[in-house]
Amino acid sequence: MKFLSSFALLAWSQSVSGFSTVAPKAVTSQAAGSYSDRVDKSMVGIDEAGGFDPTQGENAALTRNNVGEVWVPQRARPRRNRKNAVMRAMVRENIVTPSNFIYPLFIHDEDFCQDIASMPGCQRHSLDSMLREVGEAYQVGVRTFVLFPKIPDHLKTNLGVEAYNPEGIVPRALRMIKDKYPDCVVCTDVALDPYSDQGHDGVVEDGKILNDVTINQLCKQAICQARAGSDVVAPSDMMDGRVKALRDALDSEGFTDVSILSYTAKYASAYYGPFRDALDSHPGFGDKKTYQQDPANGREALIEAALDAAEGADMLMVKPGMPYLDIIRRLKDATALPIAAYHVSGEYAMIKAACERGWLNEKDVVLETLTCFKRAGADIILTYYAKQAAQWIEKDGLY
Question: Can you name the residues that pair with 187 across neighbouring β-strands?
């Protein structure tokens, strides 16, 4: 007791005899950012006499420190590492930067851009507009892109032969980007659904998606894309064995440096609707549940990941993203390959809709969402917010 100040001694004595009905004097703080009265941490006299005092009794919840303040005698206090912005930044476990992003771009063979109603802020770009968008994203640090074409109906067939037309929209777009921004990484989607008159990722016969016949076409598509300058082919079709076939096809044609980003755990999800609006690629019949994964299954993703890794995939993707953070974590723990998460169109549209109604702060919720992908284990994030998020990150000085 001899070490206590006179004020603390008074506080301690009052605590023993019960609370005073007179509140302690407040000290007004004029510190920057603080406009409230300072708190008397003895907490003596704030209630009427006879009330419950957590510091009193045989099993008191709190005690008092050497200066008479209420005290929880706990050595480990995690809040110490959160006490200010500098400390939080120093111990931050996951940081999102524009180099983590792949920016999906929708393109069409028109001389105008077309807004996508279900994806506010996104457009089907003309090729000139696409190039401008790449340039704007490039300026804020986004250097990786993936192209998704909207194909005119008259070019769609069951065999999807337009997918490997060397003068098709994707090869031309690739050449334009690589000519102007040679150090960009451009990824290309390998699947038949944009080119199919059936709206499916593969060739259809009697209502069934033909696995091996589809892979035959996908190999032609990937080689066409590689010849046009694709850095990364990204098979999204979910056919069995397609990664091995694509790797062998690429290697046999001399494209050993072209990477494969496999859609490893692509679920038959309800979150894809706006994307299918953008490409006009809704299934012509039925659904995609015979080749895309069941949303109820988690272990199945490990089977797909093991197969894709063994067949030569360089990166593994989980799609959708936020509802499948557990799958991202499972794959991260199961493989040494980089993991990508696709922040899909439905997730994007949900955030946009809530923000348009004033229910969420768009910047805060987007950056939190992207950080959640990193925390779950994603090394790469495909997001329609790539350019905008990079602008926010740059403005806040986060990289």
Answer: 146, 232
3-class secondary-structure state, position 112: coil
Two structure tokens written together for 330: 């499972």
Maximum distance among all Cα pairs of the chain, rounded to whole angstroms: 93
Take residue 164 and report the two structure tokens written for it: 């490997």
Q: What is the pLDDT of residues 211-247, one digit of tens each?
A: 999 999 999 999 999 999 999 999 999 999 999 999 9
Q: Count of CB atoms within 10 A of residue 396's CB?
A: 10
Distance CA 85, CA 98 (A): 21
For residue 390, what are the contacts with CB-CB under 8 A and spacing of at least 6? Answer: 98, 101, 137, 140, 141, 142
Which helix (H) or strand (E) segment is 302 a member of? helix 299-311
The amino acid sitting at 59 is N
Q: What is the DSSP string of 126-152?
A: PHHHHHHHHHHHHHTT--EEEEEEE--
| pLDDT, position 34 | 57
Q: Which residue has the tokens 């704007």?
A: 136
Q: 357 CB contacts (<8 Å, ≥6 apart)?
A: none
Q: Coil, strand, or helix at residue 353? A: helix
User: Among 150, 156, 266, 288, which one carries the catalytic annotation?
Assistant: 266
Which residue in 242, 243, 241, 297 sits closest to 267, CA to CA?
A: 297
Low-confidence ranges of the chain (pLDDT < 70): 1-36, 279, 398-399
Q: Which residue has tokens 């993936």?
A: 146
- Residue 115 structure tokens: 């807004």
Cα(328)–Cα(298) distance, integer angstroms:
10
- Do 124 and 167 form a contact (C-beta atoms < 8 A)? no
CA contacts within 13 A on the Cβ side of 116: 27
With a CB cutoff of 8 Å and minimum separation 6, the contacts of 254 are none
Q: Which of 319, 352, 374, 387 is catalytic?
A: 319
Active site (annotated) includes residue 2? no
Residue 136: what are its φ and ψ, rounded to 5°? Answer: -65, -40
d(CA 260, CA 245): 11
Active site residue 156: no
Query: By three-state DSSP, how is residue 169 classified?
Result: helix
